[in-house]
Amino acid sequence: MLLPVKSTAMLSAAIHTLIFRRKPPRYHQCFCSLATIDYPPLHHQPQWSGLHNWRRSPLNRDRHWGPNGPILHNNEIEHASSSPDFTSCSSLAEMAAVVLSTPDPLAKAKLSHAAYSKWRREGFPIGVSDAPSKPARPAKPQLVSPKDIPSPKSSGLPLNAYMLHNLAHVELNAIDLAWDTVVRFSPYIELLGEGFFADFAHVADDESRHFTWCSQRLAELGFSYGDMPAHGVLWAECEKSSDNVAARLACIPLVQEARGLDAGPRLVNKLTGFGDQRTSSIVARIADEEVAHVAVGVYWFVSICQKLGRSPGSAFADILKEYNVEIRGPFNHSAREVAGIPREWYDPSPAANNENKLSEVYERLACIISMEQENSSLGKPTK
């Protein structure tokens, strides 16, 4: 077992030693199947109860939002597994690089689904590829500073389309964030394991479906993605963590995607109040599915911390400090708990600290009671 790492600098150095400051292991072209992927158990860490079923779930082709929810649209033209975009690809990482290099948002979403489908169906190896410095982007939306994003009143869009456009931008970035994680860390499959890449490819497929729903609904409202400016903050956070897999997990799933758990219910309520139940239902479904993505981040972050012999909570705090990442409320504590994020990781409030202290007290009491029961049983005369 690796020795505990006690400082930010030591943590960063240990992660680089574990993941980066050694030559990438020689890659073996072995084919991959979900049925054979092993997910090591985590010790003393709550996990989302649905994680196993999500990993083993069949391919989700319900990429059209019907009258009552997501459906498989008979008229939708899907990229076939023999898509010419993938003719030169022999691995998941190579297909991921193609997706990242595709500028058109809807084409990117379709290719994302095609890549994940092809990998699951044909059992391609994870492989190795080079990640582009930035994902390809369309001419619109114009990317501006967050302070230059127009308000709902000045955007020219009604409130429901305004909120939906913002969500579509998040989902498009999420597609690229997940595939970038697959490609960028692909040389380290023997250290991270096939399950790491299978999980993030699955996340990318989910996000592509979410973007497709948002794009469809925007079109129904008479708008399209790109009709108002957007910001580049999400990708900037991704770039921060391009050289550190633990930081990538902390900054993206455990911070950025966890914010979606916080904002989802508020957005649903606003859309319902606006009178747009259809958009509200889409957002509610997306928010519900984001729990899996946060849970994936928790699992792999804790897994890496255990390899380092490090407490995940303190490692998370150190990474946020080192990378200057701020966590802001209000928090959806119940959704975060379901996803497996302990409250003391992100909430410095007295209530959270008290809960943590109470938890420690209960653990000590349980230990004392157990010891007393054991001593009592030892003192009883044998019959």
Automatic annotation (TrEMBL):
Any one Pfam family match given in the protein's UniProt record, by short name: DUF455
Region (Disordered): 127-151
Listed InterPro entries: DUF455 (IPR007402), Ferritin-like_SF (IPR009078)
CDD domains: Ferritin_like
Superkingdom to which the source organism belongs: Eukaryota
PANTHER family: DUF455 DOMAIN-CONTAINING PROTEIN, SI:CH73-314G15.3
Name this polypeptide is given: DUF455 domain-containing protein
